[in-house]
């Protein structure tokens, strides 16, 4: 193996992804094994080939880690999903209520600043929804302890599927003002925000856990 | 009927790889052994998910090696088959042999 090959680092995004889904003990073995083989491939077949191989391994590894994490603690995962779902149902009504209160309280102001009102009623509501999804994801991740990503990914998927199915019902289609692809996009963004909340909590926990060893 | 000491296909392959590798069995060597002998791409995640499951069932045991520089200062996790794992591999092998006996599966 050439000294240059030793200097080549594996794709950091793939390393981060594995760190998100693996426990500290799993990450130690998996990342060590992957680095060992990555260095070998980089010196034998070049960094591009090694990088592609690493990404392929990382994605498949994350899928396995997510599956085994769910099977390893099914009740924790289920409790996190149900709790997160109920929490989301509760908090998602807040932006509408706040907007109602603010609209009636400052009716005079809004009548002179209609563009600002429209922003609050459309984009502002979407931003609030995403922020609340981030909050729900973070809360579920905090409750799920070492299964942050499994719990938030599962919750995001459940939410996406349930909302999509509900929207396909004729009553919902008539009541809603958003097209089906548009609604899918919004729901997808909500689910991704939940997962981002989980990733944030997971990253913070890892950073806190690694503090003593790095000093 | 004896207990459910049968292995799934990948569990069986993994235990056979551990037996072949003996004291050199860790993630990289197990992955390569299965890949080489079955001619299919195997992910390190699949290997560890299976090994963790086998360890939880008491079929394998693991121990940590020393950290090495080529692994970025990370240690290897070595695996060994337990007597219970060996018995499960034998049961599975016997069941497979019994099921395939008399069948002409390998055709040129």
List descriptors.
heterodimer; A: 215 residues; mainly alpha; 11 helices; disordered N terminus; B: 108 residues; alpha+beta; two-stranded antiparallel sheet; 16% strand
Sequence of secondary-structure elements of chain A = HHHHHHHHHHH
Unreliable spans of chain A: 1-5
From the N-terminal CA to the C-terminal CA of chain A, the straight-line distance is 32 Å
Shape of chain B: globular
Assembly state: heterodimer
Radius of gyration of chain A: 22 Å
Fraction of residues in H or I helices of chain A? over 70%
Can you give the helix content of chain B as a percent range? 40-55%
- Strand percentage of chain A lies at under 5%
Whole-number mean pLDDT of chain B:
91
Please give the count of helices of chain A: 11
SS elements, strand count of chain A: 0
Can you write the helix and strand succession of chain B as a string?
HHHEEH
Q: Structural class from helices and strands of chain A?
A: mainly alpha
| Rg of chain B (CA only) | 15 Å
Share in β-strands of chain B: 15-25%
Low-confidence stretches of chain B: none
Could you report the average pLDDT of chain A, rounded to the nearest whole number? 83
Spatially, the strands of the biggest sheet of chain B line up as 1-2
Largest sheet of chain B: 2 strands, antiparallel
Provide a short characterization of the protein structure:
The complex is a heterodimer of chains A (215) and B (108). By secondary structure, chain A is mainly alpha-helical.
Explain this structure.
The complex is a heterodimer of chains A (215) and B (108). By secondary structure, chain A is mainly alpha-helical. Chain A is 89% helix and 0% strand. Chain A is built from eleven helices and no strands. Chain B is α+β, with helices and mostly antiparallel strands and 108 residues long. Chain B is built from four helices and two strands. Chain B has helices spanning 9-21, 27-38, 44-56, 83-100, and strands at 60-68, 74-81. In chain B, strands 1-2 form a two-stranded antiparallel sheet. The longest helix of chain B is centred in the C-terminal third of the chain and has 18 residues, at 83-100. Chain B is globular, with a radius of gyration of 15 Å.
């Amino acid at each position: 193996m050439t000294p240059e090959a030793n200097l080549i680092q594996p794709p950091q995004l793939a390393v981060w992804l594995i760190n998100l889904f693996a426990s500290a003990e799993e990450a130690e073995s998996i990342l060590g094994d992957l680095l060992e083989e990555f260095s070998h491939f980089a010196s034998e077949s070049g960094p591009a080939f090694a990088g592609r191989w690493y990404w392929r391994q990382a994605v498949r590894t994350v899928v396995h880690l997510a599956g085994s994490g769910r099977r390893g603690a099914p009740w924790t995962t289920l409790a996190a999903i149900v709790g997160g779902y109920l929490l989301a149902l509760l908090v998602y009504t807040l932006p509408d209520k706040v907007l109602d209160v603010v609209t009636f309280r400052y009716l005079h102001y809004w009548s002179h600043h209609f563009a600002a009102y429209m922003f609050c009623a459309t984009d502002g509501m979407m931003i609030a929804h995403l922020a609340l999804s981030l909050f729900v994801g973070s809360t579920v991740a905090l409750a799920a302890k070492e299964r942050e990503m499994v719990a938030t990914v599962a919750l995001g998927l459940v939410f996406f599927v349930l909302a999509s199915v509900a929207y396909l019902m004729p009553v919902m289609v008539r009541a809603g003002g958003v097209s089906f692809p548009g609604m899918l996009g919004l729901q997808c963004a909500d689910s991704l925000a939940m997962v981002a909340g989980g990733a944030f909590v997971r990253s913070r926990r890892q950073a806190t856990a690694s503090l003593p060893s790095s000093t | 009927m004896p207990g459910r000491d049968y292995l799934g296909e990948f569990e069986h392959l993994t235990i056979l790889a551990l037996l072949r590798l003996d004291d050199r069995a860790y993630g990289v060597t197990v992955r390569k052994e299965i890949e080489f002998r079955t001619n299919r791409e195997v992910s390190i995640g699949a290997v560890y998910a299976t090994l963790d499951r086998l360890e939880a069932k008491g079929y394998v045991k693991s121990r940590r090696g020393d950290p090495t520089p080529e692994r970025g200062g990370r240690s290897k996790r070595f695996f060994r088959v337990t007597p219970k794992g060996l018995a499960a591999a034998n049961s599975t092998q016997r069941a497979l042999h019994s099921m395939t006996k008399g069948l002409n599966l390998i055709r040129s």
